[in-house]
Amino acid sequence: MIDIRKGQAPAKLERSEFSVRFRASFHDPAFRAEDQSIARLEEIAWQAYAEGRKAPFTQKAGTSYVDPDYDLSTDWIATRERLDEAQLRWADPTTPSRVLLICGSARNDGTCPGEMSKTFRLLGLAREILEQSQIEADVLDLSLITSDYGRQIHPCKGCVSTAMPLCHWPCSCYPNHALNQVHDWMADIYERWTAAHAVIIVSPVYWYQSPSPLKLMIDRLVCADGGNPDPTSTSGKKAGKAKALEMAGWTYPQHLAGRAYGLVVHGDVTGVEESRRALSDWLDWMGFIDAGVAARLDRYIGYYEPYATSHEALDRNQAMQEETRNVARAVAKAVVELRAGRLQTVQPNLARPRPK
Fold first, then answer.
1. How far apart are CA 220 and CA 187, in angstroms?
2. Would you tell me how many other CB atoms lie within 10 Å of the CB of residue 125?
3. Integer Cα distance of 310 and 304 in angstroms
4. 186-195 vs 74-91: helix axis angle to the nearest 10?
5. Could you give the C-alpha distances from 247 to 240, 250, 326, in angstroms and in order?
6. Are the C-beta atoms of 330 and 295 separated by less than 8 Å?
7. pTM of the prediction?
8. How far apart are CA 213 and CA 88, in angstroms?
9. Can you give the three-state secondary structure of 103-123, one letter per residue?
10. Strands 71-73 and 58-60: what pairing?
11. With b meaning 16 or more CB within 10 Å and e meaning fewer, what string describes 221-255?
């Protein structure tokens, strides 16, 4: 037995504090006419919280799982089925080639900044090239979590650090209805990553790092690298069972390996190379295949110039615009080679002595 360390979790909320937090969503005076209705809803939510009703809708796992009698969340089952279907589309040579284009900026003109991001403009250049190459471009604009009502990417809870098999593929930590941790966008995002033959991430640098929407997504993709596709094997989130499974020998399956990638990282003062390298290292670790030197771009736009004129600086930087197009061209070529089975032939098929 491996000791399971306890003592960090706080006590459950008192009823009065729960009420304060619940009613914060109804602060607008327009809700006052429905105070009695809100009170009734609050009591229902309190009971769900007190009883820990994380997944109110479940069904028996069935014979394809280790424990067929385990009550699996219907939310999780629906996401898993969508991923299985996406993987089949990815592997089907008759389906159109598909590239996931990710806008990593948190800025858009639909919320506080009042202006679109340079990242989104660069992404548009890449999209044009892909579409000219008869490749489907699926645009994932992560800035929507700053401007769309109810859209969220919840943070990773770090299950993998307790034991890899406790981290389920896809993530089973959300939704958690007892804690009101809902509207989790990752169920959709997992499907879009799975369906893609390649990804291109276009991102600015925020304080030497990836922007928070991009980092949230990256952390939640940990389950794609070594995650457990069978939550019944750990009886949900039973730490002891997960530790035993890992110690018995875990294969750390790479669920998204074999896809190609490209990167465009831009900044205004510093940090582009470090951020681009971190993203490259992450994707390499996940088993993705880079589309070559031309597909890994880091550049400055308006170096040490005012923020207010940064779009004008991008207008002038025709070279970077063309380099961004080249990233898309390199990825488009890699996708053709990948689907024809030629890209992998230049990659040595080596066993991983330390697969973690």
1. 10
2. 19
3. 10
4. 20
5. 11, 7, 46
6. yes
7. 0.96
8. 28
9. ECCCCCCCCCCCCCCHHHHHH
10. antiparallel
11. bbbbbbbbbbbbbbebbebbbbbebbeeebeebbb
